[in-house]
Amino acid sequence: MLKIKNLHAAIEGKEILKGINLEINPGEVHAIMGPNGSGKSTLSSVIAGKEEFEMTAGEIIFQNEDLTDLDPEERAHKGIFLSFQYPVEIPGVSVTNFMKASINAHRKSQGLDDMPANEMLKLIREKSELLEIDRKFLSRSLNQGFSGGEKKRNEIFQMAMLNPKLAILDETDSGLDIDALKVVANGVNKLRSSENAVLLITHYQRLLDYIVPDVVHVMVDGKIVKSGPKELAYELEEKGYDWLKPEQV
Known about the structure:
Elements: E1 2-11, E2 14-24, E3 29-33, H1 40-48, E4 54-62, E5 65-66, H2 72-77, E6 80-83, E7 90-94, H3 95-109, H4 117-130, E8 141-142, H5 148-162, E9 166-170, H6 178-191, E10 197-201, H7 207-210, E11 215-220, E12 223-228, H8 231-239
Parallel strand pairs: 3-10, 3-11, 6-9, 9-10
Antiparallel strand pairs: 1-2, 1-4, 4-5, 7-8, 11-12
């Protein structure tokens, strides 16, 4: 589904990613862990096409198509979803209206008419029930006054509604207590299928107790320095990252 070859990227002339190679197949969950400043969030931003990051070398191939020249919205229409670490507030735009606009923009990109209102309501009802979301929540302004847990649950609701091929969750566990973490993880697990894939970016092994990855990658100083099964996360919890610094690999 996703193949990244020798990816280099910079922001304001400073090189952040220094040769990333990564392959993700349909049905897989991959986790990327690493210390602060190692380039994890930069990688998610570059895959999603955020314009402040300059891709200086390499390839990002998504479902056999090179993404290099595509805008963020074009990548989204092709099935890439990025859940933000710090979701923005949009006063005056309800969760429901935001989702209607998102889904219809996606349909328009495929040459389809807007989703009929009854179908939209049915989909909203189905996904909100799946994720145990109170219907009152859907009429609130997007993320305005939301707790950390509510913001993250809303991101997973957006993911459920849009049904992406590749979901990138950038530190979705950041700032969540254990109950909110379980709710978010449960939502992600319910949406996993053989047709989609998930890339988790996290500092903490605890998320991986609830969303079990097929592969764990460790990023240090802009490079993936080690990959392994889920047990690698426990090793990192125990030892930290110093034993994986590039000069020791």
